Amino acid sequence: MATTPPNPSEDRLDSTLRWRAVGLSLGMVTVFSLLGWRLVNLHLGQGDRFRKAVPETPPREVVVPATRGAILDRAGEVLVTDRRSFAVVVDRNRLRDLRLALRIMGKELGKKEDVIDRYYPREEIREYSVQRCLRLLAPRLGLSVDALREKVGKAPRGEVVVAKDLDERTAGALKDLVKEQSLPGVEVRDSMRRLPLFPDLAVHVIGFTDSGNVGMAGVEKSLESVLRGEPGRQWYEREPDGDEVLSVSRPVEPARPGRSVRLTLDLAVQRLVEAELDAVGDAKDEVYYPRLGAKGVSVILMDPSTHAIVALANRPHHRLDALGQITANRAVSETYEPGSTFKLGAFLGALDSRLVGLATPLHLHGGSYVKGPIKITDKPVLHEATVMSAFAQSSNIAAYKIAAQLGAARFHGYLEALGFGRRTGVELPNEASGMLKPPARWGALSLSSISKGYEVTVTPLQLVNAYCAVVNDGVMRPPRLIEAVLDENDRVVEERPLSPGIRICSPTAARQIRTAMREVVKKGTATKAALPGYLVAGKTGTAEKWVASKRTHDKTKNFVSFVGYVESAAGPELVGLVVIDDPAVSSELEFGGHLAAPLFRRIAGKVLALRGVPPNPEWMPTLAGER
Question: pTM to 2 decimals?
Answer without folding.
Answer: 0.84
